[in-house]
## 1
Amino acid sequence: MLRAIYPGSFDPVTLGHLDVIKRSCKIVDELIIGVLNNSAKTPLFSVEERVKMLEEATKGLKNVKIVPFEGLLVEFARRMKAKVVVRGLRAITDFEYELQMSQTNHKLEPEVETMFLTTSIEYSFLSSTTVKEVAAFGGDISQFVPSAIIGRIEEKMQSKIKRRV
Ligand code: PNS
């Protein structure tokens, strides 16, 4: 049985993430989406909100589980009994960071391998940061995020704007 972890911040989940999730699901028996809860970072969405959005976006995918985690990824992988970490590669600009991360993880835990999937071309420009930027200025994000979570993102942006005035 091959269990893999797809870790990330998912602030929020995009169609690019969902594409990697769906393709990974066909390769592995079980995919655990690890949602990083990092107190040093200040994400737009709380970890509970990010988990909820992922649950809504992955409804219907049978072999997916969403689990928040704190601390080292390799420790989380060990706890989950996962031997593979999945990461998406969009462009050469992602490569240096991803290489460093996978090699660090491999030094820390040689039993865990990182598997890279290249992002589908239509999502190669897409990031959670882009989505937040477009949404903050009232742009249309329907091409960028799963339809199930559009309302949540728009609501969050509205409440941010209201807090500022
Ligand atoms: O979606 P992101 O923000 O690119 O995901 C980054 C993530 C969560 C995979 C990475 O920050 C991570 O694994 N953090 C946990 C801490 C850790 O294990 N660091 C050591 C590897 S350099």
## 2
Amino acid sequence: MQNVALMTPTARALFGRAHAAARDALAPLEARDRQVFLIRLERWFQNLVDGLESVYGRRDDFDEVVVGLVAQLALQYVRRPESLKVLDLERDLSPDWFQREQMVGYVCYVERFAGTLEGVLDKIDYLEELGVSYVHLMYVLRPREGENDGGYAIADYLDVDPRLGGIDDVDRVCAALRERGMSVCVDLVLNHCADTHAWARAAAAGDERYRDYFYTFETRDEPDAYERTLPEVFPDFAPGNFTWVESMRRWVWTTFNAYQWDLNWSNPAVFREVVHIMGELANRGVEVMRMDAVAFMWKRLGTDCQNQPEVHDLLQALRACAKIATAAVAHKAEAIVSPSDLIHYFGTGRRFGKVANLAYHNSLMVQFWSSLASRDTRLMTHTLRAFPPTPPSIAWGCYIRSHDDIGWAVTDEDAAAVGLSGSGHRSFLSDFYSGQFPGSHARGAVFQYNPATGDRRISGSFASLAGLEAALEARDEALVQLAIERILLGHALICGFGGVPLLYMGDEIGLRNDYGYLRDPDHATDNRWLHRPAMDWEAVARRRLVGSVEQRLFEGLRAILRARKRTPQLHATYPTEVLDVHPHVFVTLRRHPLGPTLALYNLTESYQSVPTAVLHEHGLAQAFDQLDQRFVDTAGEYLHLRPYQRLWLV
Ligand code: GLC
């Protein structure tokens, strides 16, 4: 009972009751099994109570909320399949499993990758060939019919889209992938559900219990008051943050599309529902929950209603629930917010290391594209150097493209620090990537132009934004080669940064923009479908054709992944330092007991020379490049990098 002694008075006062409730629920299990749960409960109870207390602590029924929740977790554990309980123990022993250099993520739409969930089983060899150990399957849980924001408007969290199969297929796919060393990640859309979800239907039909699952208003007074400080996520096709629902005769909070109703997390019933869903999915074998749009989960008048401290408390409490009942599971926060806000998703202050295990490194992605366009790494270096330190128990999700648009998250202050105008640079990037800037190699499209702020986000596939589409059209081999090098540079950056690389489906073979989305009425208004092409398996087959674009990309990426896996210095527990040594070369340093690793990335199509003094200074008088598997010459005054060359020196 060591942990009880360390608890705060609130937690200690509640622990006895919670423990008793758990014991009752665990009755069907054998003594040792019960004990495992109770040990975990004691270990994580404080985190749970702290998270819940700051959100629900002032309620009269707070104690009941906590005790009821613990009983619910115990029941989840009772239902947890034996094989997953073994996995839990394994993860208890290796809590760094997702931080390891062996981790390689792959992100795909089930339907666009394999047709159905069962179809995924046929693609496991392919994923293994690539070297993947973590698969984020998108568009799994049953979305609403018709428009559904690419599957992010969920009508039933405990069912799958019937076109993809049945819910039991989730178990089958998870088990098959796990067998081959791959963890499944699915989206848990936390901020909102579809207007056709049973909760929303009940609310719309006048059921008060369910009306309290949402934020609804009789008049425009409150919505108007909130709107004064609220930004718009989809200003183009879903302006405003509230939607009038005639059947209810009320306004509903809808941050995203009108058919995505924001959940009211100030109601503990919502919390319990989500814990139930999380537990069910975890018991089917899902190992990573990608918690969607978390920044928006708490509303506060007079703010932009993003990144409120209560969000971090809620996430801490959800995290504790998983550690107690389904210990193998990791949480990834999808918060595409500024660096100073982002860091809280890993936990800062009293929540240090207690919130999410993984979060997207949006800045790394944005800065890659920014430097690639400007041929200048100063803004990238400045911005990433200023990142606050992260807890040693987390990992960044490092990515170059996702299924979403790219928003130019460059602050005016960071831009000014390197002599740029923030709005000017953001505007340049939109021009460059929509192909309007003279000489741009990129083929992209403007997403959600916001006349009020001037923001123009960008859609487009990795390959098209990196110049491959234009180069192939021009039938210019030199340009094709440059585009390939840019793509491999991006892959190397996310693989060498020290987080989990998240490869987006098709980027391993350079899939270009898909203009066919315009013919689908459910997609035509949302040009993010430009970069969500169906997997082209004929193109995949060309990975064996020596000299083809696909082969050069696929083998190039595989070589990077092999290098990653033999570089223990890339374990995510060690911090990544960014060095300010060159205006065109991005340089990171990772200090590790095995010795330092210096990664250099030439973001330009010119040769660049980096003083070898930098290497000497960091103990790399002799330096071996993990990527090319050879020693580099450090004797001269300069180390010369080829266009877009990358080096991982150890
Ligand atoms: C996340 C998803 C995005 C979706 C939004 C609303 O940002 O990645 O595709 O539109 O949440 O659910």
